[in-house]
Amino acid sequence: MLCSIYATWMSRNSEEPVFNQIEQIRTAKGLSRQELADLVGVHYQTIGYLERGEYSPSLVLALRIAKALNKEVSELFSLTDQKKGKK
After folding, report:
1. CA-closest candidate to residue 66, choices 32, 20, 27
2. Where is the HTH cro/C1-type domain positioned along the sequence (predicted)?
3. How many domains does the chain have?
4. Distance between CA atoms of 26 and 4, rounded to whole angstroms?
């Protein structure tokens, strides 16, 4: 019973948002969404979903994006909204 209660509770709670600086860094480097997508092996729409915060990347994808942008993962992704200074 405890497992099913826990599973029900977890399914009702949304995942903590992951904020990112992908768009700012990508545009500063002069890359289009398509170019970044090609570098990391995803569809260009995936880059858009990431930039808008509609999707959190897997660890592998986050590492690929960091490598493609020549940044550390911690420079790209955060649990704090760097744009607004909010959590």
Report:
1. 20
2. 22-76
3. 1
4. 43
Residue at 41 is within a domain: yes
Q: Name 81's bridge partners.
A: 86
| pLDDT tens-place string over residues 10-43 | 445 467 889 999 999 999 999 999 999 999 999 9
Q: What is the pTM of this model?
A: 0.77
pLDDT tens-place string over residues 53-62: 999 999 999 9
> Is 63 contained in some domain?
yes
Biggest CA pair distance of the chain: 54
Tell me the residue type at 31: L
Q: Is 87 helix (H, G, I), strand (E, B) or coil?
A: coil
Q: How far is CA 50 from CA 2, 5, 7, 53, 74, in A?
A: 35, 31, 27, 5, 15
